[in-house]
Design goal:
FA_desaturase_dom; alpha/beta; Flavocytochrome B2, Chain A, domain 1; 53% helix; globular; Cyt_B5-like_heme/steroid_sf; 2 domains; fatty acid biosynthesis; membrane; oxidoreductase activity, acting on paired donors, with oxidation of a pair of donors resulting in the reduction of molecular oxygen to two molecules of water
Length: 431
C-alpha cells in the first residue's frame, strides 16, 4: 500500500493504493469493496441503503464493477456524489484495470461500443412509442369492459374476454419492465414513480420486490447463489452442474420430501378405519364440537396469511366450483410470462460464478429469438435478450439498432452469439 507525498510544504490528500489480491479478499457479508474505473470503494455499511438492493451490489464485492455500474445507472455522474464518501483509494499503478486475467482489450472494445451507442442516441426513449404502447393496453381493457356490458358472460364471450385481459395484462407486464429498468424517462425518479403505478395498480405486485430480484438476475444471470431465478432448490434444479452438486451436498431431500415421508409414516402407523376419530390420535370425531383454544402462534400467523394465501386458495376454489372461468386469465398470463422469460435463459449455461467480463457473462447466459413484428410484440422485445442484458437502460425499440454492433464484437472475440426461431426456443425449454 503506497501513500501520496507532500508538495510545497503542504500535505496532499493521502491516496491509498491496492492490489487486486488485496481487493478480492473483501467480498464478505461484513466486508465489501469494489472497483469502479480503477477507484476502490468500501460499500460495507452503505450496501443496506443501496436503492437497487443490498444483494445486487454485494454480488460485485471484490471485483471490477465498472460495467455493471454503467449498465444500471442512467446518470452515473449524479451517482458519483454518493460514491465519493465511500472512496478509500485506487488500484496500484502497476495493476491492470481488469481483475482475474480478463481480456482487457475485449473489455475496452465493449466500453467503446457502449460509447458509440450513446453517441447514436440509442439510450434516448421515444415518447411516441411508449404512448402508443400504453394506449393499446388501455384500449384492450376498455374493449374487455365493453364486451361484458354488451355481450354478457356466456361461454364464448367469457373465453374471448379472458384472452383480451390476458393480452392486456401480459403487455402491462412488459411495460412495467421498461419503467423498472429506467429506460423511458431521463430522470430516475419519474421512472420509479410510474413503475410503482404500473406494477402496483395494473399488475398488483410490489416494485421493491421486483427490483430486489430482477437486478440480481441482471448482475449475475444464471449464477448459483446470486441469481434468484435459478435458486429454486426446494422446487427443482437446473443446468448440468447443479443436480450433481445438490446430490453430493446431501440436500437432495428437501423439506417437501421430508414432510411427505413423515405423512406416509403417520398413515402407516394409524391406518384408516371406519371411525374417523381413530385414524389419528389428534383427530377427534366430526360430531364433537370444536372447542380447542386458539394458540398465540395461530393468532400471530393466520391474519397476515389471510389475503396472500387463504383468499387466493378461495378464489381458485370458487373459480373451479362455480365455473367462473374469467379468472383463468391470470393462469394464461402466467403461462405466457414463464415461456417468454425462460426461453432466453434456461437453455443456456447455468453454473457457479466464473468471474467473466460483462460481455462474456451476459452472452453465456442469454440468447435471442429471431426478430419479427409478432415476436417483438409477443415478447415485449425480450427476443433481444442479449442486447437488453448488455444495456438494461436502453429503450427496447432501439435494440435492433445496436444488435449488429454486438454481433460484430462477439464474432471478433469468438464469443458465441446465439439466436433461434421462437418455436425452437420453446422446444429447447422442454429439453
Amino acid at each position: 500500500m503506497g501513500k501520496g507525498g507532500e508538495q510545497g510544504g503542504e500535505p496532499e490528500p493521502q491516496i491509498s493504493f491496492y492490489t487486486w489480491e488485496e481487493i478480492q479478499k473483501h467480498n464478505l457479508r461484513t466486508d465489501k469493496w469494489l472497483v469502479i474505473e480503477r477507484k476502490v470503494y468500501n460499500v460495507t455499511k452503505w450496501a443496506s441503503r443501496h436503492p437497487g438492493g443490498q444483494r445486487v451490489i454485494s454480488h460485485c464485492a471484490g471485483e471490477d464493477a465498472t460495467d455493471a455500474f454503467q449498465a444500471f445507472h442512467i446518470n452515473p455522474t449524479l451517482v458519483q456524489k454518493f460514491l465519493k464518501p465511500l472512496l478509500i483509494g485506487e488500484l496500484a499503478p502497476g495493476e491492470p484495470s481488469q481483475d482475474r486475467d480478463k481480456n482487457s482489450q475485449l473489455v475496452e472494445d465493449f466500453r467503446t461500443l457502449r460509447k458509440t451507442a450513446e453517441d447514436m442516441n440509442l439510450f434516448r426513449a421515444s415518447p411516441l412509442f411508449f404512448s402508443l404502447y400504453l394506449g393499446h393496453i388501455i384500449a384492450l381493457e376498455v374493449l374487455a369492459w365493453l364486451m361484458v356490458s354488451y355481450c354478457g358472460t356466456g361461454w364464448i364471450a367469457t373465453l374471448i374476454l379472458a384472452c383480451i385481459l390476458t393480452t392486456s395484462q401480459a403487455q402491462a407486464g412488459w411495460l412495467q419492465h421498461d419503467f423498472g429498468h429506467l429506460s423511458v424517462f431521463k430522470k430516475s425518479s419519474w421512472n420509479h414513480i410510474v413503475h410503482k403505478f404500473v406494477i402496483g395498480h395494473l399488475k398488483g405486485a410490489s416494485a421493491n420486490w421486483w427490483n430486489h430480484r430482477h437486478f440480481q438476475h441482471h448482475a449475475k444471470p444464471n449464477i448459483f447463489k446470486k441469481d434468484p431465478d435459478v435458486n429454486m432448490l426446494h422446487v427443482f434444479v437446473l443446468g448440468d452442474t447443479q443436480p450433481v452438486e445438490v446430490r453430493q451436498s446431501g440436500k437432495a431431500t428437501t423439506p417437501h420430501h421430508q414432510h411427505l415421508t413423515s405423512l406416509t409414516s403417520a398413515q402407516q402407523t394409524f391406518p384408516r378405519t371406519r371411525h374417523k376419530s381413530l385414524a389419528h390420535p389428534h383427530i377427534s370425531s366430526l360430531s364433537t364440537p370444536l372447542t380447542a383454544k386458539t394458540s398465540p402462534f395461530c393468532f400471530a400467523v393466520f391474519p397476515p396469511l389471510l389475503i396472500p394465501v387463504y383468499f387466493q386458495i378461495q378464489i381458485i376454489s370458487t373459480m373451479i366450483r362455480r365455473r367462473f372461468w374469467a379468472v383463468s386469465e391470470t393462469f394464461l398470463e402466467s403461462h405466457w410470462f414463464v415461456w417468454v422469460t425462460q426461453m432466453n435463459h434456461i437453455p443456456m449455461e447455468i453454473d457457479s460464478e466464473k468471474h467473466r467480463d460483462w460481455l462474456s457473462a451476459q452472452v453465456a447466459a442469454t440468447c435471442n429469438i429471431e426478430q419479427s413484428f409478432f415476436n417483438d410484440w409477443f415478447t415485449g422485445h425480450l427476443n433481444f435478450q442479449i442486447e437488453h442484458h448488455l444495456f438494461p437502460t436502453m429503450p427496447r425499440h432501439n435494440f435492433w439498432k445496436v444488435k449488429p454492433l454486438v454481433k460484430s464484437l462477439c464474432a471478433k472475440y469468438g464469443v458465441q452469439y446465439e439466436e433461434k426461431p421462437l418455436g425452437k426456443a420453446f422446444v429447447d425449454i422442454v429439453g
